[in-house]
Automatic annotation (TrEMBL):
This is Sigma-70 family RNA polymerase sigma factor. GO terms for biological process: DNA-templated transcription initiation. Keywords: Sigma factor, Transcription, Transcription regulation. Residues 148-196 form the RNA polymerase sigma factor 70 region 4 type domain. CDD domains: Sigma70_r4. It comes from the Bacteria. Belongs to the sigma-70 factor family. ECF subfamily. One of its GO terms (molecular function) is sigma factor activity.
Length: 210
């Protein structure tokens, strides 16, 4: 947690020193005006978070392309963003849309089982070391076995996986998750309850007790 805080503080300091921008909203406003240097700084600040979310939702395959697609949509959509204080929520929404589009395309050529078998093992070996650290999700992030977490996520439906990733792994409040997924808060709570139960059952099957 201390490393994450230090990283965020360093990112903010870099932004201020390179552009003179004092707040993130000012940085976003400059991006809306077409400032590519400010957008580069915005990318540096958020790309690891986007990468982590996309990996947990889709796996390693074409991850770089998916991250690029997210920020391409961000660049094109920024001029239309009216409430800049909700940029983070908007960014997560775009990331989720890109992940959804990716999975829909995959569904047309292979079912979920074959997709998991082809990519899951490779994903865990190549990318576990790059997962960003998050806080306040003790049932998941204190396991120290990222491959086990990813296998558990692979066993969930995309709907359950999405709420678990955004709330427990990305540490977003339920209200913001509801905004990102465009569903009622009550639905978030219901899906989160079922997702946690399914995930817990999977871990118990792997010999992890609670």
């Amino acid at each position: 947690m201390s490393e994450m805080l230090a990283s965020k503080q360093a990112s903010k300091a870099d932004t201020e020193s390179e552009t003179g921008v004092q707040t993130e909203q000012e940085l976003i406003l400059l991006c809306q005006q077409g400032d590519r240097e400010c957008f580069r700084l915005l990318y540096q600040r958020y790309q690891q978070r986007v990468r982590s979310t996309l990996y947990q939702l889709c796996g390693k395959a074409l991850l770089d392309d998916l991250v690029q697609e997210v920020f391409l949509r961000v660049w094109k959509g920024l001029p239309k963003l009216k409430k800049t204080k909700y940029f983070s929520t908007w960014l997560y929404r775009i990331s989720w849309n890109v992940a959804t589009d990716r999975r829909r395309k995959l569904a047309k050529v292979r079912d979920k089982t074959s997709f998991n078998e082809q990519y899951a093992d490779k994903d865990r070996l190549e990318y576990d070391k790059d997962l960003s650290n998050t806080q306040d999700a003790p049932d998941l992030m204190h396991l120290h076995y990222q491959d086990l977490v990813q296998r558990g996520l692979d066993n969930l439906s995309f709907e359950h996986r999405s709420v678990l990733v955004l709330h427990d792994l990305e540490d977003l409040p339920q209200k913001e998750v509801a905004q990102i997924l465009d569903i009622p808060v009550g639905t978030v709570k219901s899906r989160l309850f079922h997702a946690r139960n399914l995930f817990k059952k999977f871990l118990q099957q792997q010999g992890i007790s609670f």
